[in-house]
Each structure stands twice: as C-alpha cells, then as structure tokens.
Design brief:
Helix content is 51%, strand content 11%. The protein is of the alpha+beta class and 154 residues long. It has a four-stranded mixed beta sheet, sandwiched between helices. A hairpin with a 4-residue loop joins strand 2 and strand 3. The longest helix is centred in the middle third of the chain and has 24 residues, at 84-107.
Length: 154
C-alpha cells in the first residue's frame, strides 16, 4: 500500500506537542503522589512538559520517533522510506535542540529528565522513582547540618 501526502497529512495534523497521552499519564501519577507542577513552562528553555519548580526539576516526555530513540537504527529505516532527507534533518534538529535546551537548564541549576513514551507507559514506577530520588538528593544536599562542638559525642 502506497502512502501519499494526501493520506499522511491528516494523520500528522492529529499529532500534538502538548497534552500528549504520555504527558497526561506522568502528570496524573505525579499529582496522585502529591507533587505539584507547571506544564509546558515557557519561562524555561525548551518549555519542559512538566516542571517541578520547588525542586528545580524539568521533565520532557519524548516520543520515540520525533526525538530519535535508537537513532542509528531509525535513521537506516528512514533512508528507505518516503522523504528521508526531510525526516532525518527534522529529527537531528530536534535532537540538537534538546541538547542545547538541556545545557541551558543545567546551567540554571535544573535537573533534567527525558523519558521515552514507552518507558512512561510500561515503566511508570521507575520514572517516578528517578524523579523522587532526585527530590530526595536535593532535600539532603540543602539540609544544613548542626555545628559540632568539642563536647559532642557520636
């Protein structure tokens, strides 16, 4: 079956950049655990999908195709498909932009997470665990220890 621009265009118009199913799943799980967040926070580079401002955590929910998971394999598949130059250039541009935004966020003191869509769908507990470990590390590093005097014994 041959795909044409006329048949592809309606499908592509239904792909959203915000409030995707994987974002909704992760946001719902964070909300149920009591974490409050901002979504698509435009004040930060890359407008992260989810930002836990209290803990300086930026989360991106990346689709495997548009962000190039297993890029070398996907690139070979794209070369055999329709309009390979466009898709390879687009995905490489997305990857470069992701990298630049990550560097800017790290410079601002944010912890950055990128979760693949399938990982969110099938390994939600591991995604949450990674976020919570980062929160606990932040809490521990920001906790001031009491000053010790000569008479203190442990």
């Amino acid at each position: 079956m041959s795909t044409t621009t006329a048949s592809i265009s309606p499908n592509m118009s239904h792909i959203h950049s915000q409030d995707t199913s994987i974002e909704l799943l992760l946001r719902r799980a964070l909300w149920e655990k009591g974490y409050r967040y901002r979504k698509n926070y435009k004040m930060l580079p890359g407008s992260p999908d989810i930002v836990l401002t209290k803990y300086k955590i930026a989360i991106f929910c990346d689709s495997e195709f548009f962000h190039g998971k297993d890029w070398e394999i996907l690139k070979l598949r794209l070369k055999k498909g329709n309009n390979p130059d466009f898709w390879i250039k687009k995905i490489e541009r997305n990857q470069a932009r992701d990298w630049e935004n990550d560097k800017k966020l790290l410079f601002l003191g944010y912890t950055v997470f990128h979760f693949w869509g399938q990982d969110i769908k099938t390994h939600m507990t591991e995604c949450l665990k990674a976020i919570e470990e980062s929160i606990w590390e932040d809490k521990i590093s920001n906790t001031e220890l009491p000053e010790l005097t000569e008479g203190d014994v442990f």
